Amino acid sequence: MLACLRSRVPCVALVAIALLVLGVASPASADRTTWTSEADFAAGILEALDATSVPGSLRLAWSPGWVKFEGNPVLGPGDPGSWDETSTNSLSVVYEAGAYRMWYAGCSGISCGIGHATSPDGVAWVKDPANPVIAGGIIQNPYVLRVVATYHMWFAVNTDTIRIGHATSPDGVAWTVDGGPVLEGTPGTWDGAAVSTPAVLVENATFTMYYSGHGGSYSYSIGRATSPDGVNWTKDPSSPVMTYGGGWEGDRVHPLEVLRLATGYGMYYVGDYYAPQVGYATSVDGRSWTRAAGNPVLRVGTPGEWDSARLGDIGITDPGSGERLWYVGGSGGSLSIGLADLGTTYASFGAFTSAVFDSSSAWTTWNEVGWSGTPAANGTLVVSVRFGDAPDPNSSWTPWSNPSSVSPARIGTASRYIQVLVAFFAFDTSRTPVLDELWVDYTPPAPYRDPALWVLPLFLGVPAVVGGVAAWLLVRRRRAAPR
After folding, report:
1. Is the peptide bond preceding residue 27 cis, with omega within 30 degrees of 0?
2. Do 267 and 255 meet the contact criterion of CB atoms below 8 Å apart?
3. What is the percent of the chain where pLDDT is above 70?
4. pTM of the full predicted structure?
5. ω into 447 cis (within 30 of 0)
6. Which pLDDT value is given to residue 249?
7. Are the C-beta atoms of residues 58 and 49 closer than 8 Å to each other?
8. Antiparallel, parallel or unpaired: β 417-426 and 357-358
């Protein structure tokens, strides 16, 4: 202070110069903004994502659904020369006495019959040496129920047209086939040309059958019929109770399994001919059906997988530990049988778009974007960013950058605002990628780059310097004046 007072330059000038230098020369330091909490994620836009199940993490939205067994298929065609050497293409499963029993259609060329197999766990199956248990012609689509001490089987028989037959057995192996069809198409009606794919349940001593049929166009719909004994059937006048809906169903729907629920009925059905997949519908009365919003509930596999081309008939049981489903699938001409368990199914795609982040300066340099989490098998996370100087994204903003799947990703662009997009992909919907944290590293502008940071020191400092110099000159003049 004494040095300042003794100086010929006034203290106020020195202070002003110091302010100006400090304001201009202060170095900029890097900073980071992060998204890592449920509130952070909820502040953005979530598309088919779940931010609540595991707070602090983002994952694909999920719902109860069918999860395919990794070791599929569990039952396939027989050896060359066997009766089922070509395909196993439809089935029915019963769980009893702690074990599983399956009746399935096996084919050698165009000749198809019904076989029988058993399994202790639903995975490892042993074909019955007595196979085929029903042979002759083209017999497929078995549906088996045990009623008291008798096994009943309904099946489709393809001769000059397709009809539904019936057989009974005391043990599920030795079958007595009825002398003729128990359900045929009614000429001139919606099912006049064919009836097929029976699915039967018993309620209060009444058999109810859901079946598919067409009137000559090969566009199948679903009908309903009832019977006191499983043999003599009366068609429901409300039939067809479900018609094909286009889209993934194409021009046909076939019933596969009908279940009694606490509040009505649930039906699994197959749609389309060229790429069949499995859908689900519910009904209060068994006549008016509402399709599930997430259909199809069982989809073809990804390219290269054994079931990538088609899914067909299914069988469902509940052994007490949860529902299990066996289904027919294929990727070419041959068909096999796979297993799925009721578990968690994730959406195949989701996206998080962050809220716009404001750095407070158009001279901010965005360095890199990074993230941490867990990519799923057959799934990934990819990240894009965009920038602008307007508070809301508009045409003046940059487009989304090329997506990156490697963290961190370099940015190197200057702007005031930034927004981040994270896309989630799951090619296997039994698993999901998980995002735990997302961040952007940036460098605020050096003060000499940003007028907002140096205008105030300049505004205060320059007048002070000028005033200080003027005062010094005035003092010198007075000292130099003659006394």
Report:
1. no
2. yes
3. 86
4. 0.69
5. no
6. 96
7. yes
8. antiparallel
